[in-house]
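Worked Example 4.2. Consider the chain below.
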Amino acid sequence: MAQPQTGQPSQGQAQRPTRARRWLRRVAWLVLALIALYLIAVLGFYLMFYYTEHYYPVATPGHHLDSTLGGRGYVTHNGAAGDVGYTANVGNAVTIDGSGRIVVAGYSHGAFGRGDDLALWRFNADGSLDTTFGGRGYVTHHNAAGGEGSDRARAVAIDGAGRIVVAGSSLRSHGAYNHNDLALWRFTPEGRLDTTFGGKGYVTHHDAAGGGSYDVGTAVAIDGAGRIVVGGYSWGGDTRQDLVVWRFDRDGRLDPAFGDDHDGDGMREGWVTHHNAALGMGHDRGHALAIDDHGRIVVAGSSERSTASYRVYKVALRRDDNLAVWRYNSDGHLDPTFGLDYDGDGTPHGALHHHDAAGGGDDDGGLAVAIDGSGRIVVAGYSDEVTNQSQNYTRRHLAVWRFLNQAQTPQ
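Applying the procedure from the previous section yields the following structure tokens:
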């Protein structure tokens, strides 16, 4: 029998792939798999965007963006205070004047690193800037409190003469902590500072709660007598924030017929503070304000309370915000016909609180308030639900409350 020549592979050996070929085959399959995954991902993104654009539920006619505003239903603006490179132009509040023009108050980052400036824009009904207002459709103001820092608007209202009243804050001094003052500006309908108001067109106030640090106005309204009512908060002497309500006469002076006698001279000072609405000895903040038909001032916000937080292997004391609502009579005293009877003496104390609207045992707060035709108080805000107790993850819910125009039963 003939023997195979030396060095020649047998038939089985010739059909067996070499190691290099096996690796090449594996690499080829891997490349094909990656290409397939890439194509699947591209197709998935395409279908997602196609579905979003073509099949996502759209608003019915009459409930979509109004294209008569700016041609698209919205407008934007940048660089009001001169710094077009830093995009901090924010509108915090909006109102409509008697001619249907849109007035927006907020802030714009100033040029040369000077911080934020108060910014006030006015748009025509078609969305164009109203150049009869300040010559450009917007005005800015800096350094109301003298600290050469940031000035920011938080709230806006228009009085019976068409003048624009803006409430917010202005930096007073630098230091270990920034010290801000309540700032209140009034502009003429043409966009000029109204010098009949405080002599300069603006006024400031500091240290309402005695802490010497931070005062801010977050809400503003004009009462039936043309006086300006501002809600907000101020740092107290023990590093807590207290609710504050200020009232100013038409000329910018604090109203001596409103508030408490803080310095013991027998005269009211023009503002009131309140602490501990939710009995937690923490922060109390006012975020929204309305005036009812009787001239009573309703403020919505939050107040901290202390609660036990049960975690793995420990129980901790934590502070949660409660929704808080205060009602003041027109003289600045808490309304004894409204709120909770905290001490059981049979008399309400002018304030109430509510917690856990969403059932999650975390923060609740009010950010907007209105009064209906029956005098009931409607508050919109938030309620947080704890979704992971050990990690303190939360889900924030919209919350709407309505309170009767009367005393409440403590919860």
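Confidence is low (pLDDT under 50) at residues 308-317. The helical segments are 11-15, 19-54. Compare this with Example 4.1 before moving on.
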